């Protein structure tokens, strides 16, 4: 059960009728100002402003378009004066919506914090606050000054930090889907759009602008708070479990559809650059987690490229900048967990990325011939020729050391509260099943009321799943997760082209056959579709098998559809 601890209110057209009380007079002031530069009456210019807003919407640069129509000689001065007049500090008598004060009184009897986060020219917005008497009701008032280069989203984050709150403990209420609704969703808050004013008809452009609830009056809020605390909203809570290159594909395809997305990532990597940092600095391997952070990032292309950049020469050869950055933050903050929270802020990620455990854990494998392979890098074995690895005795079982390594509490909470749990795709044992071995993970997944989905791999891997068909993949997952633990198995039905299969065959990697008749004893519903992306016409030279990918749009459609099944 979610406990609401704070409500963030917008001001204009959320707590008072700004469109009716202030916008009309502001438009008149702007029209009067523009009449000094344009050979037209203020009444004609006022009508033009109204017509432009009606045609293009309230978000348009209306004064620019007025000048486009009348072409004044001093265009920039005309626009500047209009904006100055429109945003003048003149604030006439204004009053709160009738339901506002009774709502505040009711909420004040609880422990819920009342917060105001408003956008506009600072002095003008504070004048409104004083006239409306909001300072006596609000526990915190923050003004997003549009004359300064600071994002309103930062103020939402400040609320979380100041009151030490988690996003799901906060409700954001406003009239604009492109502003307060989007910012609240992005941070994982519950969002309520109040259908007032100029922006009520602005349709959401994507899922991040979709409010959880819509209301016509503030008096509806107490009822919604009860629904929210019972976990009822219209955005699914999705947990994706895995690692490697498979998990970021799942995250990328779902990030536009819900802010409640949690990646639970393996930390058993012991090779290459992550393994080196792990040994040298005694930290958890950051590589798989870095890839997931980048997949969920809303930051610019430059920052994403920076975190993906891998040094090619010198003493840092093969090291990723992102891995080094996470390692440095781990040392400066004192913990891997704190470092991830800081990187998540820097990369502006949607959702959250969590390690499956914070313990220094390794995966090991016992083979059918009785021999034991210690550590992920030994299981993967990059130096032995693929044909020799194909002759290796098959895996009998995998296990962790220490066996007592326990699930991260935040990961457990996300699983228990989820509507959908996705397992895979990715290296079956070293990226997927390794998470299921963490103490408490299997029990949390089985206890969760979420629908559980396994996304099967398209190709076999010589060092883990050589000779595996679809039924073998399902049996392996259910061996470690539990019989009948899966609700759905999603698999690809489209066989790759001959040229691509030949390239994979050189690495002893083959198409995993869909032997549906051999999947016996599992209650999981089989969901097949042509899921692989169309490969590039010309293959680039690559040392890793990263040519086949699931089609993210098709995969998202299927996964979201399963929520309705």
Would you mind describing this structure in some detail?
- This protein has 3 domains: 6-16 and 94-229, HAD superfamily/HAD-like (Rossmann fold, 3-Layer(aba) Sandwich), CATH 3.40.50; 18-86; 238-562, CofD-like domains (Rossmann fold, 3-Layer(aba) Sandwich), CATH 3.40.50.
- Strands 9-8-7-13-14-15-16 form a 7-stranded parallel beta sheet, sandwiched between helices.
- Helix 1 packs across helix 2 (42-56), helix 1 packs antiparallel against helix 4 (75-86) and helix 10 runs parallel beside helix 12.
- It has helices at 18-34, 42-56, 62-70, 75-86, 100-108, 122-132, 152-162, 177-187, 221-229, 246-254, 272-281, 287-296, 301-308, 321-333, 336-346, 376-380, 386-389, 409-417, 428-436, 441-447, 470-481, 498-505, 552-562; strands at residues 6-9, 113-120, 140-145, 170-174, 190-194, 213-215, 238-242, 261-265, 352-355, 362-367, 372-374, 395-401, 420-423, 451-455, 488-492, 525-529.
- By secondary structure, it is an alpha/beta fold.
- The chain contains 23 helices and 16 strands.
- Residues 541-545 have low confidence and may be disordered.
Instruction: Quickly count the domains.
Output: 3
Major sheet: arrangement of strands:
9-8-7-13-14-15-16
CATH class of the largest domain: Alpha Beta
| CATH architect. name of the largest domain | 3-Layer(aba) Sandwich
Radius of gyration: 28 Å
Report mean pLDDT, rounded to a whole number. Answer: 90
The largest β sheet comes out as: 7 strands, parallel
Q: Please count the helical segments.
A: 23
The helix fraction, in percent, is 40-55%
- The total of beta strands comes to 16
- Please, what is the oligomeric state? single chain
Termini Cα gap: 24 Å
Looking at this structure, what is the CATH superfamily of the largest domain? Answer: CofD-like domains
What is the CATH topology descriptor of the largest domain? Rossmann fold
Strand coverage percent: 5-15%
Choose one word for the global shape. Answer: elongated
Structural class, please? Answer: alpha/beta
Indicate the low-confidence ranges by residue numbers: 541-545
